[in-house]
Amino acid sequence: MTATTSHSPRKVFSRNALLPSPDPASIRLPDSPEKNNLTSSDKTRGLRRLQSHNQLSSTANMGNQSSNLRPPRSGIPTKPSREQLNQPASSATNSNNNMSTTASTSRVRANSDAPMPYVPRVRKPPPTSLSNPSSNHILTHARKSSLEMTLRDGPPPGTNAPTALSLLRHSILTGGVSATKEGMSDYRIYLWLTLLNIGPLSTDTYLGLIHRGRSPAYEKISNDVFRTLATDTLFKRRVTDASLTRVLNATAWRIHDEQSSNPPSEFAQRYKQSTYLQGLNVLSAPLLYASRSEAQAYAIMTRLLTEHIPTYLSPAMSGVHQGLDLIDRILAEISPALSAHLLSKGLQAKIYAFAPVTTLCAGIPPLPEVLKLWDFLFAFGAHLNVICVVAQLLMLKDKLIAEQSPGKMLRNFPNLNADEVIKMTVLIVKELSDELYRDVVMHGREVS
């Protein structure tokens, strides 16, 4: 799928062809000291240059009409139900195909990254036959296109915002986000902002925190920044230590202001948070890698720490420890044999799963697979991260049971395969008791 910011020469030509061409007879060339010595070919060449300039100027003016992509309005429910996660993939695929067809006729909404207004084209319905590989490719392309088109054009006509969000979630679950092998996508960051219901953040707000200088947690931050994904060449090539320091420093200032306000805010009274804890550096790494600006990464970081996992940042990291206890409980319920084997070796989740829970698996390479896993977590809830950790254990079940020292295998989790982890996670969710699943949903937000 081509990026929304690029346009082929053919498309540009077709748009320019609609522009009225100036009458050559009405064009007067600027006077020149050598005007009397100009040949007829020189005059013709000048006319052509002026015509070309007029056409290009008109095209550029069209591009300036683009506006920022608007996130969903506040008040829209963004947390999906357990039933939606368990909905059969076939019905999700039908929903996505329908969305792809209806989205093409929706009203136009400009994209801040598109130099020209988007003109919807009439798309033919995708073929229903799956008898050959080309048909599968067309269906996949239509499903992925619907994801991007919904972000660009808004909900299809007759569809409200919650229904559109449901369609986005199913598109992620069944088709995923189109990205390069390095994990780069032109619309992933906008998808994350939409799924997390994050409104526009003024860049001046972020810059105001940066210009305040070093936060009370600056020394701790500087000691961790250089170690963040230190061996990941993709990350180091795209994200600088200075950028990571600024985002963490701004986050620390925001938390400091929240906790020290007088009178204390309602959030500060409910959640006691530290300005910085080890692990936040790794948690912010994928955000900076996928974002187009530091302000976007800061906005998502703020939403995670205030809405989804606020207890992870408590001085005792109570939410993280609740998540680790849940891993042991889930294993005992889903796979008693594996649970008994690990416990017989003294391997509770707090020994081997502390980092994956704290960072939402951000420290498990490769980074592009982390981004795919986060598409799923942001669509269906960051609380599912603990189940994703269990899913990785179940994928290693046979090896772990056969290993006399499974702790060696779990010192570093194997490379992440996001698609397989997501499939296993969905299966685990179906098998969990209602009480246990409720505890999973609330563990990052419920004060112990």
UniProtKB/TrEMBL annotation:
Compositional bias of type Polar residues: which residue ranges?
52-69
A single Gene Ontology CC annotation of this entry is: mitotic spindle pole body
User: Any idea where this protein resides?
Assistant: Cytoplasm, Cytoskeleton
DNA-binding keyword on record: no
* Protein name per its UniProtKB record: CDC16 protein
Among SMART domains, the record links this protein to: TBC
Task: Identify the residues that the record assigns to the Rab-GAP TBC domain, covering every copy.
Answer: 182-381
InterPro entries per record: Rab-GAP-TBC_dom, Rab-GAP_TBC_sf
Residue ranges for the region (Disordered) are: 1-136
Biased-composition ranges, Low complexity, are: 89-106
Q: Which UniProt keywords apply?
A: Cell cycle, Cytoplasm, Cytoskeleton
Keyword Cytoplasm, does the record have it?
yes
> What biological process terms from GO does the record include?
negative regulation of septation initiation signaling
Q: Which GO terms describe its molecular function?
A: GTPase activator activity
Family, per entry: Belongs to the BUB2 family.
Which PROSITE patterns has this protein been placed in? TBC_RABGAP
